[in-house]
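# step 3/5: fold
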Amino acid sequence: MLAVLVWFIEARFDDEWRSAINLAYSVPVAAFALALAVLAPVEGVTPRPYQSTLYVASVAILLQALANLADGLGTDGLDGAGTVMWVFAVLAAVAAWFAAARNSAVCTLLAAAAAGVSVLAFVQWVFAPERFGPQRWVLLALIAAYALGTVAQRDRRPRHAVALADAGGLAALALGLSFAFEAFFGLRLEGFPLAEGAAWGWELVLVAVGFGLVAYASVDREPGPAYLGVANLAAFLVVAADGDSLLGWPLVLALGAGFLLVVGLRPTTPAPPPPDAGTPPAPTVDLPR
């Protein structure tokens, strides 16, 4: 509730109050929230629900405090790529500390997402590309990094592996939305010329990530990757729906569906008998009365 209050005040009085006033209340509140989160006693292997909420709220309040600090320093605030780069780098570092020191999976997700935003802002700040193409390649690299992290953490820290899988799903969804908004809504991203559409390689990334997340969620029984997988498949449908031929993706999807149907309906091989199947039962002994 404190985080909502701070953001509500920021939204209502952002134009009326000077940056110094916003900075004067946001920094102490952020320090207070972070102190509560750090000093909360660790009572088990994983944080309790109220502690996870406290970690997320402290990171959210810190975001506003850093934005006000950047505004007070005379920068463009979160409208500038350079400011976004260092603000989200700080957020990623704080969330990563909570993820490592408090074993918080949700902070792993926050750290991964914030680090991705910081890298994207760095590319925009340094190279200032006129199209969104370089950022798409960065998103592809982030997807690969998150996937490798998921595989590395799946056995040792499964909750953190799910968080990294969710981060990869978010990166892929951002990739799909960069095409979907242009294809479906016809919107021109500010400062970027309108793209011609997604090449089949980008469509392959979206469909692979979508089905991969759904499969991962089915095997590990985790709802988060399933939702993001469906969202990525919806983005794929928007991006790849243009065309008037059954060749291409319709044929590929039909063949894939047929293959999976055959695999799913094949007769199952009965399990072998247990090693002691032919062993007679152990004799019983009457207990003395």
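# step 4/5: annotate
The CA atoms of residues 59 and 83 lie 17 Å apart.
# step 5/5: archive (pending)
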